[in-house]
From TrEMBL:
Keywords carried by this UniProt record: Coiled coil, Fatty acid biosynthesis, Fatty acid metabolism, Iron, Lipid biosynthesis, Lipid metabolism, Membrane, Oxidoreductase, Transmembrane, Transmembrane helix
InterPro entries recorded: Acyl-CoA_DS, FA_desaturase_dom
PANTHER family assigned: ACYL-COA DESATURASE, DESATURASE 1, ISOFORM A-RELATED
Family according to the record: Belongs to the fatty acid desaturase type 2 family.
GO terms (BP aspect): fatty acid biosynthetic process
Primary location class: membrane
GO cellular component: membrane
A GO term for molecular function: oxidoreductase activity, acting on paired donors, with oxidation of a pair of donors resulting in the reduction of molecular oxygen to two molecules of water
Name of the molecule in the record: Acyl-CoA desaturase
Domain Fatty acid desaturase stretches: 38-261
Length: 372
């Protein structure tokens, strides 16, 4: 079968910008040098364009994980134009299709099933999408968003102004025009491109699957570090409307921190977070599935299967009781008129269920270790 025609603009853009970043940028550094201001401009623009993709294109517009003030939306639209990854409307349409048909080699625009190269950059080099390229039926809500609609209408002008005009202006102010164009223009753009592309490629190949193995998405702390928190992709594919990707407080997810900070400043609201019990249950179900798979090799597997299932049922029941009690306790705090006796009863009930749940989790861990 003959492959679809090459998209010349994309192929030239990726090839030339990559070549300049790999050859000309280091050559200029060695012969002329870059100063602190040029590196700072590179870093600020890299973070601005990168986080506009993760917090804006991805979590706000593709997944509606929170609502943002128009001022923040305009910022993301500007940063998205600087990132040169097509308009927010087009990006979100591709991304929603990716989630809906993940790993389907025909329907998922950047299916990891077609290999690293295809999911990383290959999918943009040829006209693989065909008629689908201009099908925006899955982003009608965004077509009604004035910021997204404006950015889509004027994307070419905006992206040229951001990628050429801004580094040129900074270069004039700084004095070294070419150095600024190379660092804050080309290298920054190439780095923003490939860190985003890694989410479509590496984050579906390299890492762990603590929440689900029904698709190829992985959690990877190293990738999260380079992608503003998007490396926790296994969690994200199961709980796609959650404004967080790294749910633990220590997991590196600056996009989540930015959204939370924006909410404190009144620039974001209605942050969506999946209930803890659903997240914990998904993790336990994965552990059960893995343990069952390991048991297949053992002779007395039926006995082990029964024990495993019994412990899991007990644990999931305690999990539900514990979280229901926590919910009751939190609601009680809002009801100031509650009698002292009722308040104390709820607290005692909560503590007892918490202890029981922790003890069950310990014996579950011991059982899993015994099977391994
Ligand atoms: Zn994905
Ligand atoms: Zn997503």
């Amino acid at each position: 079968m003959t492959p679809p025609p090459i998209i010349v603009t994309n192929a030239l853009l990726f090839a030339l910008s990559g070549l300049v970043a790999l050859v000309v940028v280091p050559w200029y550094g060695l012969t002329h040098g870059y100063d602190l201001w040029q590196w700072l401009s590179f870093l600020v623009l890299f973070c601005f364009s990168g986080i506009s993709i993760t917090a804006g294109y991805h979590r706000l517009w593709s997944h509606k994980a929170y609502k943002a003030h128009p001022a923040l939306q305009w910022l993301f639209a500007a940063g998205g134009a600087l990132a040169l990854q097509n308009s927010a409307l087009h990006w979100s349409s591709d991304h929603r299709r990716h989630h809906r048909h993940v790993d389907d080699n025909e329907q998922d625009p950047y299916s990891a099933g077609r290999g690293f190269w295809y999911s990383h950059i290959g999918w943009m080099l040829r006209e693989y999408q065909g008629e689908r390229y201009r099908d925006y039926s899955n982003v009608r809500d965004l077509q009604n968003n004035p910021v997204v609609a404006f950015q889509h209408r004027h994307y070419l002008v905006l992206t040229l102004a951001a990628n050429l005009g801004l580094p040129l202006l900074l270069g004039v102010l700084h004095g070294d025009l070419l150095g600024m164009l190379l660092l804050a223009g080309v290298l920054r753009m190439v780095m923003t491109h490939h860190t985003t592309f890694f989410i479509n490629s590496l984050a579906h190949i390299w890492g762990s699957q603590p929440f689900t193995d029904r698709n190829s998405a992985r959690d990877n702390g190293i990738l999260a570090f380079f992608t503003f928190g998007e490396g926790y992709h296994n969690f994200h594919h199961l709980f796609e409307n959650d404004y967080r990707n790294g749910i633990r407080w220590w997991q590196f997810d600056p996009t989540k921190w930015l959204i939370k900070a924006a909410a404190w400043c009144g620039l974001a609201r209605d942050l969506r977070a999946c209930p803890d019990e659903r997240i914990e249950l998904a993790r336990l179900e994965m552990q059960l599935k893995r343990a069952q798979a390991r048991l297949r090799k053992q002779d007395d597997r039926e006995l082990w299967q029964a024990l495993l299932q019994e412990e899991f049922d007990k644990l999931s029941q305690q999990l539900q009781h514990y979280y229901a009690s926590r919910k009751r306790l939190l609601e009680q705090r809002k009801r100031t008129a509650l009698a002292h006796y009722d308040r104390l009863r709820l607290q005692l009930e909560y503590r007892a269920l918490q202890d029981a749940f922790i003890a069950s989790k310990r014996s579950w861990s011991r059982l899993l270790a015994g099977i391994a």
